[in-house]
Amino acid sequence: xxxxxxxxxxxxxxxxxxxxxxxxxxxxxxxxxxxxxxxxxxxxxxxxxxxxxxxxxxxxxxxxxxxxxxxxxxxxxxxxxxxxxxxxxxxxxxxxxxxxxxxxxxxxxxxx
Length: 112
What we know:
- This protein is of the alpha+beta class.
- The chain has a single domain, classed as Translation Initiation Factor IF3 (2-Layer Sandwich).
- About 35% of the residues lie in helices and about 45% in strands.
- The relative contact order is 0.30.
- The mean pLDDT is about 85.
C-alpha cells in the first residue's frame, strides 16, 4: 500500500511500488523530530481520561510530528538523487519525561 506522493515523490510502506521498477538503490534515509508535551494538552488529556474520548491535541501533535519526520526523510532521499522511498516505517521513543521522538525511515530508490 502506498503512503502517498509528495510533489512527484513517492513513498511506500512496501518493498516495491506496483507498476514501477526500482532501477537504483541509494540506502537508508531517516527523518525525525522531538516534541515536548504541552501543559494545556495534559490538562485536557486528564479530563478525557475521566470521561473518555479522543485526545485531539495529542492526535494533532502526532500527525504534525509524522509529517515533519516524513518531510525530513524525503529531503534526505532527494539530496541523494532518489525519487522514491520504499519500506517506510515509523517508530517512537521517549527522550525524557514529557518529550518523545518520532522517527521515520526507509530505503531511498530511483524508480521508472
